[in-house]
Amino acid sequence: MDLDDSIQRFEQEVMEKPNQPLPHYNLGYCYKAENRSDDAIRMYERAIQLDPDNNISFLSHYGLAQIYCLQHEFDEALQQFEKAAEDLPSLKVRGVEERRRHESILYQSWGMTLYSKVWNAKFYGSERKDLVSAQQYLERALRLDPQDDESRSLLKIIKKGLETGIVIFDKEDSIVKDIPGTDE
Question: How far, in Å, CA of 147 to CA of 144, rounded?
Fold first, then answer.
């Protein structure tokens, strides 16, 4: 089944089951995959509204966070990660390993978003604090999944940057940010 078929199927399910959160979540996921961000946001938000027991709200908040991160709306993305973390205990999963995987991916993405915020947002004054938080989330992701090479690599970069400092330049080679390290 391709993406267009999936979208048609879930659009039909949403019409047939307008008060069920899962079809809305599934359609939001497909819309996100098709880069239809506004439609995906609408479906994820509806899935959250329809999910008072938070059985799948974790997944919807996580999907929203991904969209907002791609749109460089970092503060909104971080709020959605926080809500996803709150809903994690209610997520219906098939065992401890699946829960650990979801939790690890959440903390990895949260840390990466903080790192992206530092690099992509204009100077906002809390860059160092956000790098420390990113480090903590990535360390947590690694405790949950010691094989997570992506988190391990970014963690090394962040630790080195916190130690030696980070200078970020714009396209014209002008300094945009100069974040001091502990060595300075």
Answer: 9
Percent of the chain residues topping a pLDDT of 70: 99
Which residues make Cβ contacts (< 8 Å) with residue 32, sequence separation at least 6?
Answer: 40, 63, 66, 67
Domain of 30: which CATH number?
A: 1.25.40.10
**CA–CA separation, 61 vs 162, rounded Å?**
30
Low-confidence residues of the chain, pLDDT below 70?
1, 184
The CA distance from 161 to 77, in Å, is 23
Task: Give the number of domains in the chain.
Answer: 2
* 34: its two tokens: 């098709």
29 neighbors 63 (Cβ within 8 angstroms): yes
Give dist(CA 137, CA 146) in Å, integer: 13
pTM of the predicted model as reported, rounded to 2 decimal places: 0.91
Spatial contact of 53 and 21, defined as CB atoms under 8 Å apart:
no
CA separation for the pair 117, 170 (Å, rounded):
15
